[in-house]
Amino acid sequence: MSPKELPPSKNLVFGRTFSDHMLRIRWTEATGWQAPSIEPFATINLSPGATVLHYAQSLFEGMKAYRHDNGTVTMFRPDMNMKRMNTSAQRLALPAFDGNALLECIKELISLDRQWIPKEPGHSLYIRPTLIGTNGTLGVAPPSEALLFVITSPVGPYYPRGFKPVPLHGTTEYIRAAPGGTGAYKLAANYAPGVVAQKSAAKQGYAQNLWLHGPEHWLTEVGTMNLFAVIKDKDGITELITPPLDGMILPGVTRDSVLALARNHVSGVKRLEGLPDVIRVSERPINMGEIIQSSKEGRLIELFGTGTAAVVTPVDKIGYNGGDVIIPTGKDGMGPVSKPLWTELVGIQTGDIQSDWNYVVAQ
Amino acid sequence: MSPKELPPSKNLVFGRTFSDHMLRIRWTEATGWQAPSIEPFATINLSPGATVLHYAQSLFEGMKAYRHDNGTVTMFRPDMNMKRMNTSAQRLALPAFDGNALLECIKELISLDRQWIPKEPGHSLYIRPTLIGTNGTLGVAPPSEALLFVITSPVGPYYPRGFKPVPLHGTTEYIRAAPGGTGAYKLAANYAPGVVAQKSAAKQGYAQNLWLHGPEHWLTEVGTMNLFAVIKDKDGITELITPPLDGMILPGVTRDSVLALARNHVSGVKRLEGLPDVIRVSERPINMGEIIQSSKEGRLIELFGTGTAAVVTPVDKIGYNGGDVIIPTGKDGMGPVSKPLWTELVGIQTGDIQSDWNYVVAQ
């Protein structure tokens, strides 16, 4: 196969362009994992009875490879993704795998296709490992055959025209997750059902869903991102709040990193410029009642989503109970807490800041 | 392609053998539905970025074609499946289609492969229409390309050794559905997450999950079947109870048929032999408290699941709160209410009883 033409970076749309190669690793119940194989990007040929098509036996991960100015290529905390991918596999009774070995294969794939990592600032190579059940029998059961594949896609900055805060629709008529369900796992099954909810929000003028849980309207996630709120507590201390990992919340890598950076700032391990000296870092439930109350009392500082695709997404309002709750935003979109955290995160990812969170793919 | 060898009917395992042909109909946002095509059964070739693989953009139906003793081939109420399939498509923002036109295509497919319908009593041809999003882009959005395909599979009786009542595990640690979710739609996304719950029930000695909802432990469904309980009310009247279509319950064709047969019996439109003269037919919530209370008072008559695959599945116990609630069963498995209803249903499906529920595929 002759390599494809690389599109100009400015024309990149998330997940539409794929690089020349892909990784495939087959598994069968009888033989276990077969030898991994890096092949030209090509169709996946499935039995029309394949369980992935009928029962959503599928899970995935999302990661990025960044090209630093000095040419080094790194990934950001990929061990977290490998661990989560195995947790997702367990939830679906799909086979477990050696995360380190898979990471080595992904490293090879990226090295081979490294010309596909765009050079422009804010650009990266998006990496999508996927594990699907492939046996062609219609019983609902653990699969006897599976395929793990990895594709990669060059992507530009999620917000090419800078941070424009997004309005959210406080959603109660649809759910993303519920206790005992699969919200804490990165399963295919969690995504398709959200499309009509997003369409309904868009129709009402909102960009994304703010998924509210239960009669108390607990905040859970934003679209396909984790969620953070910043409130000035009554004792005057700035509190950075994100919902706890109670079984409904995806344990996001960006979520974990934001918490770690904030805690390192508080403990003095690494102070971040611009961040308030004292922050209360909380993994705790927060509901719309508290958002509205703190907003009324002028104590609501900001609200933002976090995820691999966009890193940080500021929010400027929440449509709720027929009205809009206005959320303060900074002059370039991000607020006083998200901005220094985002700056540090992106500094690490682009290689400007040294960190052992970077996993070197190629020098 | 040369036709495959038909396996002996006694060796059939549900959904493992497929007939010679399949139906394929492509859809694109730009052109709409393309011409349907009946082709040899062969692999489906997808972009590795196809949304069905990553986000579970998939829904399906299950129907059966029965061969009567006189050679006539019929399907059972397929209009219900076509209607439900369109409802599922709408829930996933997949394209709507003309149910009558699809049914005509399925009729042609079955006629072509009619030698695949086993002749033995209790056997049938299982029909699996499936609609999947196929566009190869990683955005979570309504698909711009889709494929509707139909495969068929000869199947034997679900319980080849007669009706053996199954023990259920009263499941609260996993959920099948929740308000605002997708339990009322036949989506791929509803199935894979149930596999670990079934495995966990099996490990404890139970065949299937009895999905209990909320702190009140409302009974919802059994494995992948709808659920009926029969209780003698305090006024001495036999009550046939199934949970209402409140958004968590799949509107099953067998469920609807059981309700219709029972109501026709009560109203005198068609009396069924063996059924109590007076029955209270209720679509209403029922919880474990009521099951236990009626069991203690000797008023619990039976409990059974309904679905296309097994038609009626009697239950003999429910593992709950560390003990077992024993459910009465009849001497051949089914109880006094399910038995006459099952007899009528199967009589219609096999052509022994005339009914406008039968849709003639071939004479």
Automatic annotation (TrEMBL), chains A, B:
Its EC number is 2.6.1.42. One of its GO terms (molecular function) is L-isoleucine-2-oxoglutarate transaminase activity. This is Branched-chain-amino-acid aminotransferase. The modification N6-(pyridoxal phosphate)lysine is found at residue 186. Keywords: Amino-acid biosynthesis, Aminotransferase, Branched-chain amino acid biosynthesis, Pyridoxal phosphate, Transferase. The keyword Amino-acid biosynthesis applies. The keyword Transmembrane does not apply. One of its GO terms (cellular component) is mitochondrion. NCBIfam families: ilvE_II, PRK13357.1. One of its GO terms (biological process) is L-valine biosynthetic process. It catalyses: L-isoleucine + 2-oxoglutarate = (S)-3-methyl-2-oxopentanoate + L-glutamate; L-leucine + 2-oxoglutarate = 4-methyl-2-oxopentanoate + L-glutamate; L-valine + 2-oxoglutarate = 3-methyl-2-oxobutanoate + L-glutamate. Its cofactor is pyridoxal 5'-phosphate. InterPro entries: Aminotrans_IV, Aminotrans_IV_CS, Aminotransferase-like, B_amino_transII, BCAT-like_C, BCAT-like_N, BCAT_family.
